[in-house]
Write a structure and sequence with these properties.
Layout: E1 5-9, H1 16-27, E2 30-33, H2 34-47, H3 55-64, E3 67-71, E4 77-81, E5 84-85, H4 93-96, H5 99-103, H6 106-120, E6 125-129, H7 132-136, E7 142-147, H8 150-164, H9 170-186, E8 199-202, H10 208-225
Parallel strand pairs: 1-6, 1-7, 2-6, 7-8
Antiparallel strand pairs: 3-4, 4-5
Helix pairs in contact: 1-10, 2-6, 8-9
């Protein structure tokens, strides 16, 4: 059976990561959470008191604290930076609200994209993010761009944060998600937008199983035709 590369893009809380993890498990593919990599860069910047004026210093702490992925006892993916598990830390509000400016730095994007492309060379991989289909894996056999209303995405993030014990206000979340959409889609480097050959799928009102079925069906057709 031929293995393919699958790119899933979309704005914050559009369901990319949840769906990608399930599909990767079902196909026996490697899942790479690119968003966690940018969150890790933001975490390191905040921990070291760095701003967008400190690009060389951000690149230095990234080099000194390599990002890797592990697996927890319950099978969930963990994010490790410099040997420290920061899986929960990178989901806190301070990181969430600062990841856009860090990910907009061209030098940071170049470094992390290079890492992502090296990991994907062997195929049989599924990545989610904001520029996978346009920049990271422009030759991916399947490109999906997920969208959903701001209200629904805020409610999803609110529920996730509650489950993780992260204090959150729903109205604040709506505002933050809308602001992040604007920042991500208007940045100069790798703006959030669907690739020309991507399938745009609106997940508003559709549960995770429905989204997984939709993408899995598309992937199966491509895999079976190889």
């Amino acid at each position: 059976m031929k293995s393919i590369k699958i790119a899933i893009d979309g704005p914050a809380s559009s369901g990319k990561s949840t769906v990608a993890k399930i599909i990767a498990k079902n196909l026996g593919y490697t899942y790479l959470d690119t968003g966690a990599m940018y969150r890790s860069a933001a975490y390191l910047a905040l921990q070291n008191g760095l701003t967008d004026q400190d690009v060389p210093a951000i690149l230095k702490v990234l080099a000194e604290n390599p990002i890797s992925f592990g697996k927890a006892k319950d099978g969930t993916q963990t994010v490790v930076v410099g040997g420290k598990d920061i899986s929960l830390a990178i989901r806190q509000n301070d990181v969430t609200n600062n990841v856009s400016w860090v990910s907009a730095i061209p030098e940071v994007r170049r470094e992390l994209v290079a890492q992502q492309q090296r990991i994907a060379e062997g195929g049989a991989i599924i990545m989610d993010g904001r520029d996978i289909g346009t920049v990271v894996l422009p030759n991916a056999e399947l490109k999906i761009f997920l969208i959903a209303s701001v209200e629904e995405r805020a409610e999803r993030r609110f529920k996730e944060n509650q489950e993780k014990g992260i204090p959150t206000d729903l109205e604040t979340l709506k505002k933050e998600i809308a602001e992040r959409d604007y920042k991500d889609s208007h940045r100069e480097v790798s703006p959030l937008k669907p690739a020309e050959d991507a399938i745009v799928f609106d997940t508003t009102g559709i549960d995770i199983d429905g989204v997984v079925s939709f993408i899995s069906e598309k992937a199966k057709k491509i895999i079976d035709s190889k």
